[in-house]
Structure formats: C-alpha cells, structure tokens
Amino acid sequence: MPSGEPVPLEAIRQARRRLGSLTLRTPVIPLDGSSGDSRIFLKLENLQPTGSFKVRGAGNSILAALERGNVAGVFTTSAGNMAQALAWHAQRLRIPCTTIVPDTAPEAKLAGIRRFGAEIIQLPWAEVWNITLTQVYPPLRDRLYVPPFNHPDMIAGNGTIGLELFEDLPEVDSVYVAIGGGGLIGGIASAFRALKPAVRVIAVEPETATAYTASLRAGVASEVRRTPSFVDGSGSSSVFPEMWKRLHGLVTESRVVSLADTAAAIRLLFERHRVVAEGAAGTALAAARLDEHRGAVSVAVISGGNIDTGKLTTILSGSVP
C-alpha cells in the first residue's frame, strides 16, 4: 500500500511560527461521561476567532503567499468556514476578499463572512465544486485563489493541531477527524506520522456523503451521491485525486455515522460542556463514542461551532434537522 505523502514536520512547525498568536492554542478537555475505562478528549477548535479550525490553514496560506510577493486580493470556495477564516485574515491585512459559497450555506456562516467584510457570491454546489477543482473563476482572474484544503500551506497550518495534541496529550491512541476535502485530517495525520506513528488518525463522514470511505474500499479516488444535510462542513461527493495521493496510506481508516448519532453528539456537547458544535464536529465525537475501547485514549476534534440557531434548537429539542 502506498505510504501517502505527508507534509513535512518542519513545514508544520514553520506554520506555527508564522501564525504566532493569531490563532489560539485550543484546550483539550475530557468528555464528561466516557464509559468504562476508556477516555475521550475534545480538541475545541470551535473556540478559534472565526469559530473553526480553518483560521489556521487560511492564515498560513495567506501569510506564506505574502512572503512570496505582493497579493492584490484573494478569493476562495467554501461551505462557509474557510470563507470566514480567509475573510478574517484579509480584513486584518486590508486585502480585498471574495468568497464563493454554495447557495445552501448556513446563515450563521454567511453572517460571519459579512461581519469580516468579504464579498459573497452564492452558486449551486456543483458550480462551487467545479471552481474548487479548476481553481478558476474568470471574474476574479486578478485575485489569488486560496484553496480551501488541497495546498501544502493549508495542510501545514492545519497540522499545528497535531503538534498541540502530541504535546498536550502524549498518551493519545486515536484521533477522530471529520473529513471533507481532507486538509484538516491531512495536516493532523502528517504531524502524527512524524511524531507518533502508532496513533490512529480516523476519517469520519456523515452517512449522506461518504466519498472517502468509498475510496478506501475501492482503492482509488471515488465519487458518490451526496445528499445535503445539516452536516455541511464534512462529507463530499468525491475525493480530489491529489488529496487521495496524499492521504491514501496516511489515513487508512474511516467511520460513517448517522445523522441521528451526530445530532446526539452535538446535544451531548451542549448539555454537558456548554460547547456549541456544528455538524462536522458532531460526526467526530459520534464516531469516537461508538468506537470506545477499554483503556483507549481518544480525541474528537471539535472542528467548528458555526451552526444555525434554528438547527441547534431542533437538535437540543431531541430531533434531527
């Protein structure tokens, strides 16, 4: 089996130096109520300035681009979290920013993008995905496209989460990470490949979009039918060939979780920890809870907290949006 192509550990360390105090070193806390002798911990990326881990990769990407030369403006494609993160950095740097998001993007994420002063272009999911594939949108040809997941600078920035986990919880056995494009799990897995290869980094998808699981089974980057759901930040209709090349052999396990189990995990986080988590973050905890093993130390990466209040209210009332 191919060994995958992790980003170098030094690139991740350089990303941490580059980001400095712009991002939080988010806490790792124990989940109240882990069963038996197992222990589940939560890495709270929902506490980042824009409410998700994306502020790490987006920051490293734009700062690295500035080191290479002048940047007249930036744009990206995103379900919402990357758009907010890039807009936040661009506003701080006084660089024009445009975000291309699906016409199904949650209002909570759209409000965040507006708050950080970026222009929003809403298009059907298929068009957004095509721009992500081609990295071309003619009306913005003078802008720098910042990929939401499939660039070494983005992956290295996300890998700083792995550095922190290794330092703060060295006894960790397994890390559960929601996978969409693969930039988050690629960074975390790259860090652990270098620092503690025995750690299992497990990709988690909602039952409505299981492209990575299908790809693992087929042994090649595969496509599936994606059904829109309240889990908008993870799961995909396909795996980018370049990301498959990087992840295949690096991330060899996946879990598929139901929307009901995801909603239950989000409800648990709120009720026991007063943590607000979005759908993708809920999938990671749902998988960790279903996988609990005696004596194991697991981490669920709570990747973001940008969920519409209406959907959160529905979940807290015991239903699935």
Summarize the entry for a quick read.
This protein is an alpha/beta fold and about 325 residues long. It is built from twelve helices and ten strands.
Describe the structure.
This protein has two domains: 9-52 and 151-316, Rossmann fold (3-Layer(aba) Sandwich), CATH 3.40.50; 55-145, 3-Layer(aba) Sandwich (Rossmann fold). The protein is built from twelve helices and ten strands. It has helices spanning 9-19, 54-68, 81-93, 107-115, 125-134, 152-168, 183-195, 211-218, 241-247, 259-273, 279-290, 309-316, and strands at residues 28-30, 39-44, 74-77, 97-102, 119-123, 144-145, 174-178, 200-206, 253-257, 297-302. A six-stranded mixed β-sheet has the order 1-2-10-7-8-9, sandwiched between helices. Strands 5-4-3-6 form a four-stranded parallel β-sheet. A hairpin with an 8-residue loop joins β1 and β2. α1 (9-19) packs across α2.
Find the structural class using helix and strand composition. Answer: alpha/beta
The CATH topology of the largest domain: Rossmann fold
Helix content: 40-55%
Write down the secondary-structure element order: HEEHEHEHEHEHEHEHHEHHEH
Number of helices: 12
Uncertain spans: none
Q: What is the radius of gyration?
A: 18 Å
Q: What portion of the residues fall into strands of 2 or more residues?
A: 15-25%
Which features would summarize this protein structure in a list?
single chain; 321 residues; Rossmann fold; 2 domains; 6-stranded mixed sheet; 4-stranded parallel sheet
